[in-house]
User: Fold this.
Amino acid sequence: MSLKTELLQLWQFRGFVTGSVSREFQGRYRNSLFGAAWTIFNPLSMIAVYTLVFSQVMRAKLPGVDSTFAYSIFLMAGLIPWGLFAEIVSRGQNLFLENANLIKKVSFPKACLPAILLLSSLTNFVIVLGLFLVVALLLGMAPGWSLLGMAPLILIEVVIAMSLALILGVFNVFFRDAGQLTGIFLQFCFWLTPIIYAIDIIPESYRGWFGLNPLAPLFAGFQTIFVQNTFPDWSSLLPTVVVALVLMLYAALVVKKHSDDMVDEL
Assistant:
């Protein structure tokens, strides 16, 4: 099936996609006293705790940045995009297993499943990011025009995350070990990517190894926007873009190759 046909089918099923995202969002807080308000309470409490602990209690600061809240902003600028990445990948591993009944229907376009996953994850991300921007504004560290630099960073991140989600989702249908390995993979990615620590604290002899991580310049870009209020170093992102394109092509190949086999396996 061509890409044009899949996009056309996706447009025809747009009501199903948006409805599924809405039901998923509402179902997450069904039967709770505060309902969807937890969408705000949870990330707001996380932001407040990190800001208080790291700016007031630990007095953590960044090298070369003279601000009480610099490390708190640095931390959240990395953790919030990481939350988007981790949610897409971790949920993607079970994308086809959890929707086996839909995949077995001949008339159902499989492109709807990653679309629902992406829109649902982006909805949560936008809410948390909005709260973070408000806090950054109150702390006097809200970025200016450099905030526009988040758009290409998010696009690159989403391409990588969705590609990995689809690849792991397909592999998990045939090899359940793929689902078990996803959590370990995410743990390694998190700690080997400078998200909660600055690359400057790593001994120079080891920095080259961290430079091999394609996620490192991506998350450094988010942190540069919020902490330094400047656009990222776009040239440093070129290897990440190449990795994203390769993963995207490989994911498309894997899904296309095993599409029919998944129906039999499920």
Notes: Residues 38-265 form one domain. The CA atoms of residues 10 and 162 lie 17 Å apart.
